[in-house]
Amino acid sequence: MYKKHTLDNGLRVVTEHIPFVKSISIGVWIETGSRYETAANNGISHFIEHMLFKGTATKSAKEIAEVIDGIGGQINAFTSKECTCYYTKVLDTHYALAIDLLADMLFSSKIDEEDIEKEKSVVYEEISMYEDSPEDLAHDLLYQSIFKNSSLGFPILGTNDSLESIGRSHIIDYMKKYYTANNAVISIAGNFDEDRLLKVIEEKFGHWEKAETLVKKDEVLQYNFNHVSRSKDIEQVHLCLGFKGIPMGQNKLYPLLVVNNILGGSMSSRLFQNIREEKGLAYSIYSYPSNYKGGGLLTIYGGMSPNQVEEVGGLIYKELEELRTKGLTSSELNKSKEQLKGNYILGLESTSSRMSSIGKSELLLNKIYSPKEIIQKIDTVKMEDVEEIIKEVIDLEHVASTIVGKVEKDFVFNKAK
Predict the structure, then answer these.
(1) Number of domains the chain is built from
(2) Which family does the entry's similarity section mention (predicted)?
(3) For the segment 28-39, what is each residue's pLDDT rounded down to a tens digit?
């Protein structure tokens, strides 16, 4: 049972009480990420996430780690395209200490000039690590290409050049703009006394200032269906294909999830079984949908040896063509729906995943769906919904592609000869 409380400063607090566990997961969600950046400050959202762990007015970076380690808890954070989250998981007896630590990091971080320069070196290494991971690079290039007219295409980590120019004043200004009470959500799942919990949150976060005007990203995304390649002296070729997907919050996402499961979303999927298991042409091949405000993607990824790119590309094309002409069988539809429900329900067994689910949903959609509602949305997917989404998303005339590896000629996505 979810509950929502809104403090006087506009801060939303969403809770789910789970009395039979001994843990509590707490997340502070801010609606900002790389999509809210410019080319000049690209990477600043992720960099701020790093800086809030570098020490506060009362604790050093080491002491922050020692506080959470001392109670056997966990603390971490992540930055995505559209949000940033700082979260902890602790025993239910230590919730007040965890909330105090998160508040201290958000409101009292030093953001010291010397620490900024040190942490830039860390993020430069993180960027280099991504460059050395061709699978990650292929996905990043796909976003940069297909969303080249939108900040959604910016890399979350930023670039060496954009990070170099970011200073303390830029960080403070950015936080004043986006790190505000009415642009944030605190989500909590686990075992707690609600009155005591809300009292602690009010005490630690009630003074958080709110913004008079909030910057929101509600643009309708434009798509660019081009081919991009990056030559790298590596053994495999990494291929990504991108199709126009479904925006966040639309019910059409559920039939797309059903289709994706059968196409490439599991080990029993058509792409995995045909290309890896039967023909042995790729070690890794999968598909997945991503959804954002105003648009989304369906992405297919495959890793293979350079001399098999055309054959694998042709087989993917053939599977998609067959999906368009023949659709799914009724047994595939039912199997996929059961798979989706099973995966979803198993995921609910963790307080961390529940905290994440309700926090992100409230932050970006201003709405939380109960497990019963989600299961109902999956159950009500009909064959005609699936056929409609296949026609809408699997458009073989509009495909973006990226390749990373030893590329001798341009990749053309069509039937195998």
Answers:
(1) 2
(2) Belongs to the peptidase M16 family.
(3) 999 999 999 999
